[in-house]
Amino acid sequence: MKRDVLQEKILTILVDDFEFVQPGLDDNLRDDHGFDSIDAIELLGKIEGILGLALTREEKEKAMEIRTINDILDYIELIESSRTT
Amino acid sequence: MRNGLLSDFVVTIICWVWFTLGFILFFSWRYVAAVLFAHETESSIQRLNSRFYQVLFRIIRVTAPNHTWEIDEQVAAIRSAVIVCNHLSYLDPLLLIALLERHRTIVKTRFFTMPIFGWVLKKAGYLPASGKGQFAGMMIDQLESMKSFLQRGGNLFIFPEGTRSRDGKIGNLNRGALKIARLCNAPVYVLQLANTDKLFTPGKFLFNTRITNTISLKIIDCIQPTHPDNMPSTAILEQRVLKAYRKQQK
């Protein structure tokens, strides 16, 4: 999946489901949008839906360190590439 | 005055004796047995926590009779819900644990690193406040199992202010509890607790047994999912919770 398509999907989810207002790609998710560990776990479920796969425990733990929307996109691309190689 | 202070001191010491010796003599071996032999360790530990604090509150009721208790019987009957409550004293979480046998709650992350106490918290299925670093796995496990825990009759109770109120007024709310309610499509019960801070005041070491006081706990709102798969947004839930508290303060 191309990054710009992925970006649009993630932004739509963050606005619609997590009530983000005007999210920026390098905003600090916690400080700027109140995004916490509970949100991260909910988002992981939605990422699984986008990718059509189940994340492993290690992959989920890695996601808890995500800070920005760009980090989310990097994370998804990393998962995609690791599953295709 | 001196007799009053002596009474405060004696009640405080009795409670601490229960916390330490009472735990070692009457409960420590039960916890070990629950971990080794119980079919469902988590619910067994929660039940033991509940029993332990039920005894503590019996002790307080007997030794501090100037404080009367008006606890809404409906509170102990709540099942499968996220419960939010205002926070006045360190006694508050202990009271809810005593009342709700099947419960989980969110605890300050640093408590999980304490010997024995941290172990009990982990075994009880409580959630760390932060999911960072070594606590990421624990947070994931507890949240992923939360929906089934609630569906099986358990309750998650949280003090969304995060800290004890010093003036009795409701402070800013952390939305974590409401996010979990949405995630699990669970009803939110809003509880109002009053005057536990008169018995065990923030910043004080001794219980205050001298004043005449009524401690009360009641349900002031219940927000049900409007549709099986359609919970209000977190912002709307927060507004409703705040409205319920502000109505009580008028």
Structural features, described:
The complex is a heterodimer of chains A (85) and B (250). Chain A is mostly helical. Chain A has helices spanning 3-16, 29-33, 37-51, 57-63, 69-84. Chain A has one domain (3-84): Orthogonal Bundle (Non-ribosomal Peptide Synthetase Peptidyl Carrier Protein, Chain A), CATH 1.10.1200.10. Chain B has helices at 2-37, 41-63, 73-76, 91-99, 117-123, 136-144, 146-151, 176-184, 196-199, 234-249; strands at residues 67-71, 82-85, 103-107, 127-128, 155-158, 188-194, 213-223. In chain B, strands 1-7-6-2-5-3-4 form a seven-stranded mixed β-sheet, with helices on both faces. Chain B is globular and about 60 Å long. The two termini of chain B are 35 Å apart. The relative contact order of chain B is 0.16. Chain A binds chain B through residues 19, 34, 36-42, 57, 60-61, 64-65, and chain B through 130-132, 136-137, 139-140, 143-144, 175-176, 179-180, 183, 233-235.
What's a quick, concise take on this entry?
The complex is a heterodimer of chains A (85) and B (250). Chain A is an all-alpha fold.
